[in-house]
Amino acid sequence: MTTHADPRIAVERYWTAADHRDWATFATTLADEVVYDLPQTRERIRGKERYLTFNREYPGDWRVRVERVVADPDGRQAAVRTLFTTGDQELPAVHFFTFDAQGLISAITDFWPEPYEPPAGREHLVERY
Amino acid sequence: MTTHADPRIAVERYWTAADHRDWATFATTLADEVVYDLPQTRERIRGKERYLTFNREYPGDWRVRVERVVADPDGRQAAVRTLFTTGDQELPAVHFFTFDAQGLISAITDFWPEPYEPPAGREHLVERY
User: Fold this and answer.
1) Of the candidates A54, A58, A61, A72, which has an alpha carbon nearest to the alpha carbon of residue A11?
2) Nearest-CA residue of chain B relative to A49?
3) Residue A97 near residue A108, CB atoms below 8 Å
4) What is the CATH number of domain B7-111?
5) Which has more confidence, A52 or A2?
6) Which residues of B touch A70 (CB under 8 A)?
7) Least buried of A105, A112, A129, B8, by fewest C-beta within 10 Å?
């Protein structure tokens, strides 16, 4: 049984469901033993029920859209760039997904890279955008 | 001609060469018109020569090792997690690569996600690692 064997389809479904707060559909993408990691805070959430609660309780009137999907069916994994918006604030994020043999998400690692000032000394090589 | 048609092989070669400061080998992975983006500072570097100079001039006695490769041959792209170390300081990074028809790297986007303190209110769901 491979309900979401294509990582690209699975992550699109995951993000569309998150954007719609459709936690029933969101849940269908997750393995029961899913592990969610935030390396920047060294936080970890174990299990589908806890991870669903984390998402349901997450504050803010955010929207999310997918900007880029790197799909690796052989490796049963995907990497995704998203853009979260809350009002006029934009926050890019990067996510790594691992899938089990049934095509369900068994591991998620999220990164939230914040803006910073560029160091001096490379102005002769770069432009700003 | 597809000298580096497998994204996984190309990115391994790129990172091994960077770790060894072997800029001649590093250069063989890059398209002449490569574009390097740093979304957090909104810096952009255009062209192989400038990008090589940027890397040659980059300060510090850093080492880098690849932690995870997501390879998408159909999409001619890859996503990579690395760990940079300078002395006892560790800095994780995330990189997105796009390849041209010859298997050369035509675009690179780097993210440097820094540690931050977790917000209050989710201690009932998370563990720290």
Assistant:
1) A72
2) B125
3) yes
4) 3.10.450.50
5) A52
6) 70, 72, 75, 77-79, 96
7) A129
What distance in Å separates residue A1's CA from the closest CA in chain B? 23
Report the C-alpha gap between A99 and B19 in whole angstroms. Answer: 30
Rounded to a whole number of angstroms, the distance between the first and last alpha carbons of chain B is: 46
State the smallest CA–CA distance between residue A76 and chain B in angstroms: 9
Tokens 């926050």 map to which residue? A91
Which residues contact residue A88 at a Cβ distance below 8 angstroms, ignoring those fewer than 6 apart? Answer: none
pTM to 2 decimal places: 0.94
**Residue with token string 């983006």:** B37
- Name the residue ranges covered by the structural domains of chain B: 7-111
| ipTM passes above 0.90 | yes
pLDDT digits (tens, 9 = 90+) for B31-78: 999 999 999 999 999 999 999 999 999 989 999 999 999 999 999 999
Report the residue of B54, B70, B84, B99 to disrupt the A interface, i.e. the one with the largest count of A CBs within 10 Å. B70
